[in-house]
Design brief:
This protein is an alpha/beta fold. Helix content is 24%, strand content 28%. The structure holds flavin-adenine dinucleotide and adenosine-2'-5'-diphosphate (A2P).
Length: 283
């Protein structure tokens, strides 16, 4: 007999029945906040398991139970920094997506499954020491950099950090824009970031202050000219992290390799690292 039924049995006949506890999911964490940015994008925060240690930039498997009671899990970059007491995620809503067609409806108080085994290559340890660090992302690919931009270690290791984020529409940049604005006012990292972080958001379809693909703005030299910083990248001092669609990652890799940067990994640090923001062609 459960605690709830014991209490019900003991209660007087007209008392309000005690609420029936929802069944606990395995590796359950509780949703504390949900923000919808567009009809295709939302972010949410969940409680952090006490035992979970991760390096800023890593991803974990999260999900919900499917209709047959089996865990339906997907890879998600942790968007919050490693020092944060909660965990934040930034998510796409795929209309027919097995997970996100349901995950987009979560509310504070709901539970999600979170497997506490963080992994990934977008970590500071996978790069050799350098002076300038580039974060190159499209769409939800900004998530690992949302973590790294808020980590003091990023600014301890680099003199300058440049966040290039490109989306089709202005509204899709809003999560990153607000994050950078709040970061500059933050007690812990604000001062370090204020002097070192350069934010370069662009759109490709909506008209906006700055336009163009990351690849075009790098190859043409526009980003270096706009930010008044030396270009192109130099393998002696520049380090880069790349996170977008497969096509984006391949195109950026070709540019970085052309400038003499080599791909690194946890086991073999080098000048740049890459991770897919998702598997598939995009929607
Ligand atoms: P799925 O069946 O997984 O995907 C259906 C289709 O939707 C895919 O084939 C693809 O065409 C498209 N799609 C999936 N994810 C995206 C996306 N993020 N952006 C654009 N198109 C997409 N997703 C996030 O939203 N945030 C993250 O932080 C994140 N981190 C990831 C990290 C890694 C290492 C990998 C491999 C994937 C990551 N993803 C992330 C993608 C995520 O795992 C799921 O694919 C996504 O949540 C959709 O799940 P689904 O079951 O609804 O649809
Ligand atoms: P574009 O509008 O010119 O296609 P998507 O929504 O298709 O995932 O794309 C997200 C952003 O990434 C868009 O701004 C898109 O630009 C850009 N993009 C898509 N593919 C590439 C690529 N191969 N190289 C550079 N940017 C890309």
């Amino acid at each position: 007999m459960t605690e709830a039924t014991v209490m019900n049995d003991a209660a007087p006949p007209n008392a309000t029945p005690a609420p029936v506890a929802k069944p606990h999911l395995p590796d359950a964490q509780t949703v504390t906040e949900v923000t919808h940015w567009t009809d295709r994008l939302f972010s949410f925060r969940v409680t952090r398991p006490k035992s979970l240690r991760f390096r800023s930039g890593e991803f974990v498997m999260i999900g919900l139970m499917d209709d047959r009671g089996k865990p339906l899990l997907r890879a998600y970059s942790i968007a919050s920094p490693s020092w944060d007491e909660a965990l934040e995620f930034y998510s796409i809503k795929v209309p027919d997506g097995p997970l996100t067609s349901r995950l987009q409806h979560i509310r504070p108080g709901d539970e999600i499954i979170l497997r506490p085994k963080p992994v990934g290559t977008l970590v500071l340890d996978a790069l050799t020491p350098g002076r300038r660090l580039w974060f190159l992302a499209t769409g939800t690919g900004i998530a690992p950099f949302a973590s790294l931009m808020r980590d003091p270690e990023t600014y301890e290791k680099y003199d300058q950090v440049i966040m290039m984020h490109t989306c089709r529409e202005v509204a899709e940049l809003e999560y990153g824009r607000q994050l950078v604005e709040e970061l500059r006012a933050d007690e812990l990292v604000g001062e370090m970031a204020a002097g070192k972080l350069l934010y370069y958001p662009t759109t490709t379809r909506d008209p906006s202050a700055r336009m163009g693909r990351v690849t075009d703005n790098l190859s043409s030299g526009k980003v270096f000219a706009d930010l008044r910083i030396p270009g192109p990248m130099d393998p002696a001092t520049d380090r880069a992290m790349v996170c977008g669609s497969l096509a984006f990652n391949l195109d950026v890799k070709a540019i970085l390799e052309g400038w003499g940067l080599r791909e690194g990994a946890n086991s073999d640090p080098a000048e740049y690292v890459v991770e897919k923001a998702f598997v598939g062609d995009g929607i």
